[in-house]
What we know:
The chain is flat. It folds into 2 domains: 1-62; 66-205. Helix content is 80%, strand content 0%. The protein has helices at residues 3-26, 33-62, 67-88, 97-119, 128-149, 156-205, 216-222. The protein has 7 helices and no strands.
Amino acid sequence: MTQVIQTVIRHIINVPVMITSWLIFFFPVELGFLVSSALAVVTYLTSNFAIKKIQQRSIMKKYDLTSSEYFHIRKQIKEATAKVRTLNNHYLKVRSVSSFKQLFELNRLAKRIIALVKANPKKFYQAENFFYAHLDSAVELTSKYTFLVSQPSKNKEMKIALQDTRETLESINSIMEDDLKNVLASDMEHLRMELDFAKLSVSKNEKPLYLKGETTNERKYLE
């Protein structure tokens, strides 16, 4: 369950709670409009906080994470999302189609990895290198590349630096593809296990087709 869905669920629950509490404070208790409104807001915030903690505990239990692990992973996701936004800011600064495609692919891979870890925080440990090193390298090199490209005149050394940066970014692209494969590795293994089990079940349940009136003994004789 994504954080967006969790937030929507909290609003769906808490808005009726707030309205009900306001009606109780205003009519039966007769605290007045302002006091009732203030208490209703406090009730909403308290209820929202309590449900959010319950949701977090549920996720930690589901993925067998400690509190420190869970909040560390959330922090890493937040920082990675900000870094991807920095990558996005470089789109209009590149000058060639190939560079644009390269940047687009980097963004695509980064967003995909982050989305998978958001959906399953446990996958963070399969993508630690991406969060701690590879994404930082992609942002730093892209910033360097777009800076060099924006210079009005380019000498021989600058052209060599640009070519080196493009080649290194291509390597980072391949490394991030491997990061994505690592994140998906457990899913692929689980899928293979399910397919093997399904095939085994089908093979056990398969029965030969008999002609009308044909018996098992007759089929064995024919075979």
